[in-house]
């Protein structure tokens, strides 16, 4: 059976590197729309953010690229498609989303000197432009196709790359996809514990949990909350063990949960304490 993956995700999440690793392992061709957009931006002498703003009012470029994605449904052989909309347009692919924190995304893009069409003077400006581009793209695809790229429930697998190496991420994608091909049940969401937020006011008395059940989380407006009190201690244990890809099970809400500042501060203190101990070792 052919190896066919559509891969999208947050800016700076490592999509290109992960694609190259998977391509070498599975002898798969890579089709990527990112370089096409960057080339168009460079030819016009404008930024990628500006080309995205232009595409909000003129969908010609979108239609051309999306028609190419549809044709890939009949492309023979092993194929990895690095594209924002391949999950929507290309049939028969295993749909993967790479997620990363906004802070890490900004750092990676700011320090990547090869992105000549996306160079910024400060880290703050990088973060601002990333948010604008993401908002622009999500709005555009919702308007054109009714497709919500930011809804993680659309994908067969979501992997958080904030604190995981590209090799680790690629290995996990390969492992889960092979389970999928065999018709086996598999975890669909792997997250970095440092991005999770508490949902209860007192997690200090949580009992030790030793089962392998996924952490139940609530995803609301871009934030991720630990749903059950007992899982708070379990997440801290995962972080302490250096596991940066925690198996999770998600439900989705329209609005962010209300967590008070004291609880957030206590949680962040607990996470930072673990990280500081790890750095000493």
The first-level CATH class of the largest domain is given as: Alpha Beta
Radius of gyration computed on alpha carbons? 20 Å
How many structural domains does the protein architecture include? 2
Secondary-structure element sequence? EHEHHHEHEHHEHEEEHEH
Mean pLDDT: 86
Please give the CATH architecture of the largest domain: 3-Layer(aba) Sandwich
Low-confidence stretches: none
Please outline what is shown here:
By secondary structure, the chain is an alpha/beta fold.
Explain the overall architecture.
This protein is an alpha/beta fold and about 280 residues long. The chain has two domains: about 5-180, Rossmann fold (3-Layer(aba) Sandwich), CATH 3.40.50.300; about 190-280, no CATH class. Helices cover about 45% and strands about 15% of the residues. It has helices at about 15-25, 35-45, 50-55, 60-70, 85-90, 100-110, 125-145, 165-180, 230-240, 260-280; strands at about 5-10, 30, 80, 95-100, 155-160, 190, 215-220, 225, 245-255. A nine-stranded mixed sheet has the order 2-3-1-4-5-6-9-7-8. Strand 7 (about 215-220) and strand 8 (about 225) form a beta hairpin. Helix 1 crosses helix 8 and helix 6 packs across helix 7 (about 125-145). The longest helix has 23 residues, at about 125-145. It is globular.
């Amino acid at each position: 059976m052919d190896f066919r993956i559509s891969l999208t995700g947050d800016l700076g999440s490592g999509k290109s590197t992960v694609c190259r690793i998977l391509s070498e392992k599975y002898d798969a061709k890579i089709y990527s729309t990112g370089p096409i957009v960057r080339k168009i931006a460079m030819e016009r002498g404008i930024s990628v953010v500006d080309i995205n703003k232009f595409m909000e009012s003129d969908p010609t470029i979108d239609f051309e690229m999306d028609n190419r994605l549809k044709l890939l449904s009949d492309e023979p052989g092993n194929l990895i498609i690095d594209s924002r909309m391949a999950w929507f347009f290309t049939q028969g692919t295993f749909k993967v989303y790479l997620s990363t924190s906004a802070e890490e995304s900004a750092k990676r893009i700011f320090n990547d000197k090869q992105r000549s069409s996306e160079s910024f003077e400060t880290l703050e400006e990088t973060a601002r432009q990333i948010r604008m581009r993401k908002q622009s793209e999500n709005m555009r695809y919702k308007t054109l196709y009714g497709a919500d790229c930011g809804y993680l429930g659309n994908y067969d697998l979501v992997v958080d790359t904030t604190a995981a190496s590209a090799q680790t991420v690629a290995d996990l994608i390969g492992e889960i996809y092979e389970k999928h091909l065999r018709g086996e049940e598999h975890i669909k969401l792997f997250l970095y514990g440092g991005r999770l937020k508490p949902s209860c006011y007192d997690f200090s008395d949580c009992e030790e949990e030793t089962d392998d059940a996924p952490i139940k989380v609530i995803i609301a407006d871009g934030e991720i909350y630990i749903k059950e009190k007992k899982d708070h201690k379990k997440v801290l244990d995962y972080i302490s063990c250096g596991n940066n890809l925690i198996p999770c099970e998600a439900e989705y809400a329209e609005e962010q949960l209300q967590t008070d500042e004291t609880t957030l501060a206590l949680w962040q203190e607990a996470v930072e304490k673990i990280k500081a101990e790890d750095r000493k070792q």
